[in-house]
Amino acid sequence: MSDSNIPCNGGEIRRSEEFPIVSRPEERTAAQERVQRFPYRFPRDPRPLGGKFGVEENARRLMRFFYFERRLMQSVGAWTLAIPEFEVKVESGRHLFYHADAAKLLRERLNEQEQRLSVIDGFRDAEIDRFIDEMLSAADTPEFLVGLHQVAGKALETAYRHHIDDTDPVTDAPTIRTLRRILLDYEPMLGWADAAIGAFIDGGIDETRLRQWQWHLRRLLASIGGVTGSDERIEEPSPLRITDKPFERNTVPMRDERFMTFKNTGEYDVGDDAPRFQEGTYEHTRLRFIRTQRDEVDAIEAFGTFLWDIRFRDFKAEYDLARITWDEARHTEIGHKSMQIAGYDPYELPNRLTSSTCRGPMEPAYGMAEINLFGEVGVMKTIGGFIDEARARKDDLLVHIADFIRSDERTHVKKGQHIIGVMTDLGMQDLELKTRELFTECLVNLGAWRRDMDLFTMTREDIEKFIGE
C-alpha cells in the first residue's frame, strides 16, 4: 500500500491526487485569502475518513451485538426467581433493562442501515444460544454473575470499545454514539458485579470454583469466535453442563436468610400473627403501602419470568417487560428505604411470598393478567385517595413516593395491554375468569384462602386484596 492510500473496509481508499485535478490557481489563492480574513479559529476536526468496516460488515457485527444483548436480557429474566440475595435480585432488575435498552439502540441502528425490523427480530445464532444456555446453567448466584458480567459483559464491553476504535469515525458516527451510550450503563453495571462477586468470595464462596467456571465460559465463548464471531476459534471445552441437563428456569421464589417470609396468606396482619395498627386507620394503610412496595421484589420475579417465557415472540413486549422490571426494582428500593425512614429495620417485617409462589409455575398470560388487570388496576383505584390523605396529614414521605409510584403504575397498565395480547389470544373476559380460577386454586392449596364452597372462585376484589400488588 502506498503512502498516499488509507485503509478502509479491508482495502484502500485512493486519494484524490490519483485522479485528475482541475484546480485553478486564482481560485485557490482567493479561497486562501478568504480563509485568512475569516476571524474565527474553531477547533479542528481531527477525525480521519476511513475505517475497517463497510456497511455490510458493520451490520453483521451489530447484529451479533444485538443478539447477545437480547439474550442477556432474557437470561436475567430467567434467573430472577432463583436469586435469593436481596441486593442482587434488585440490581438484576436494573441490569435486565440495561441489556434491553442496549438491544433497542442496536436494533434502531441496524434498521437505519437498511436492515428490516423483521429480519433483525428474526435473527438467531445457534452458537450464541449454546453459550447462553451454558451460562444459564450456573450452580448459584455467584456463578451466574461471573458468566453474565465477568465473561459475557466484559467481552461485549471490549468488543464495543474496539468497534468504536476501528469503524469510520465520520461515516459511521451514529454507531459510535450508540455504543458509547450503551457503555454508559456498562461501567457501573460491571463495576457493581465485580464488587458483588468480591462480597461473595469474602463471605465464604470458593473463589477457585468461580474462576474455574469463568475459564470454562471464556473458552466456550472463544470457541465461537468471541462476541464478533471473527476471533480465532479454539476447541469447545468439554464437558458442557447442558449436555447432561438442559437449562430450565426456577419456579420457586427464593429469599436470603435475612428474611422472615410467609405464603399462607395475602394479609400482612395474618402473616404477622397480630395487627400492628387497627385496620382502617391511616397508620395501617400507610405501613401496608410501604411494605407492599418492598415486597414488589416479587414483581421483579414476575416480569422477568414473563420476559423469559415469551422470549422471541415480540421485541416490543420484551422491551416493555424489561422496563417494567426495572420500575419494580426501583419500587422495591423505594419500599426498603421508606421502611428505614419510617423507623423499621426492613428485615424485621416479614416478606409476603404469596403472589410470587402462585405465579412462579403459571403460564405467563395468567400471571400477567393477575398482576396487570387486578394488581396494578387495583392500585390505581385507591392510590389517589391515599395520596390526598397523606398530603392532608403532611406525610411528606408518603406523598413523595406514592406520586412517583402512581405514574409508574399508570404506565404499566397501558403497556400491559400489548403484552397480554402477545401472550394469549383469549378475550379479556375469558382471561379474567381463568386467572381468577387459577389463583383461587393456588391460594386454597397454600392455605391462604378458605371457603366451604368447593366451586367458589375469588372475585376481582378478593384478588386485589389477597395477592394484588
Model description:
The mean pLDDT is about 90. Helices cover about 65% and strands about 0% of the residues. The protein is mainly α and about 475 residues long. It starts with 5 loop residues before the first strand and ends with a helix. A two-stranded antiparallel sheet has the order 1-2. A two-stranded parallel ribbon has the order 3-4.
How are the SSEs ordered, and which strands pair?
Blueprint: E1 6-8, E2 11-13, H1 25-37, H2 55-79, H3 86-112, H4 117-122, H5 126-136, H6 141-166, H7 173-202, H8 207-223, H9 241-244, E3 261-262, H10 268-271, H11 282-294, H12 297-309, H13 315-341, E4 351-352, H14 354-359, H15 364-392, H16 396-423, H17 428-446, H18 460-466
Total domain units: 2
Give a short account of the largest sheet.
2 strands, antiparallel
Query: What structural class should be given to the helix and strand makeup?
Result: mainly alpha
Specify Rg, calculated over alpha carbons: 27 Å
Secondary-structure arrangement, i.e. CATH architecture of the largest domain = Up-down Bundle
> What is the helical fraction, as a range of percent?
55-70%
CATH-assigned fold name of the largest domain:
Ferritin
Q: In terms of per-residue confidence, which ranges show pLDDT below 50 for 5 or more consecutive residues?
A: none
Task: Please count the helical segments.
Answer: 18
Widest beta sheet: strand line-up? 1-2
Shape: globular
- SSE sequence, one letter per element: EEHHHHHHHHHEHHHHEHHHHH
Overall mean confidence score, pLDDT: 92
Distance between the termini: 67 Å
Beta-strand proportion: under 5%
- Strand element count: 4
CATH class of the largest domain: Mainly Alpha
